[in-house]
Amino acid sequence: MEKLVECVPNFSEGRRADVIEAIVGEIRKIDGVKLLDVKPDASHNRTVVTFVGEPQAAKQAAFSACKKAAELIDMEKHQGEHPRIGATDVIPFVPVRGVTMEECVQLANELGQEIAEKLEIPVYLYEAAAKMPSRVKLPDIRKGEYEGLKQDITKPERHPDYGPPRMHPTAGATVVGARQFLIAFNINLGTSDVTIAKKIANAIREARGGYKYCRAIGVMLEDRNIAQVSINMVDYTGTPLYRVFETVKSEAARYGVNVVGSEIIGMVPLQALLDVAEFYLRLEGFERKQVFEENL
Fold this sequence. Notes:
Its main location: cytoplasm. By secondary structure, the chain is an alpha+beta fold. The protein is 33% helix and 25% strand. Strands 1, 2, 3, 4, 5, 6 and 7 form a seven-stranded mixed beta sheet that branches. Strands 9-10-8-11 form a four-stranded antiparallel beta sheet. A hairpin with a 4-residue loop joins strand 3 and strand 4 (46-53). The two termini are 21 Å apart.
């Protein structure tokens, strides 16, 4: 069986199309890798890229893209709504076929060491690849974002896992890891009051006593003048999308606000959408094999 991993690097650039294309172009050059999706977001000033490939080919593609991002993105000038610590903010590996989580952890270590040694970018390991409990969750590593880490990286507790305890002068730092499938799910509110989005995010996220596997922040989409609850669902089988969506609607109603739309960033498993359809359509006895495309 062919070994296959998914890689979902996030780059701190969502506005300059030429820069995004140059970074993605490095991935396209690598044999054994298939580019699946490129999702730029101007308000977040961030692009999420999804590709799959044989493990070593995926690692090579991730390194090449990270190298190009370091050349083209200056974190000293970067501004955006999404938390970030570097030009290549995060690179997760996800087991897809014929690959174990342990193999993805090894891949993350290999890539982290290569980035640190060849590009002189400090690297932190997270999720299954984390070397300490305090670094399992990405928000904990990103605490203070680029500006805060720049000041704190010399503190022993914030030393990187690979590389010296100093930020790259323009590329910042990078987080590399191994994890299960994550769904980036954003819900837009009919208000320009970002404090409402932040209150709702606090109500649903796991760290504040909300839903398990749910991480959320409230941000402002300046180009649309609306507030957004930006969500990462790290295990959609443990907490389904519809449950979070319904809670956001209910919480928003408390403030006299409507949900005006939602979006999924990057790829999403079919089962996650089928779960939503089953809930809202009140489907009885529905099976995945009833999906036409699944039988082709």
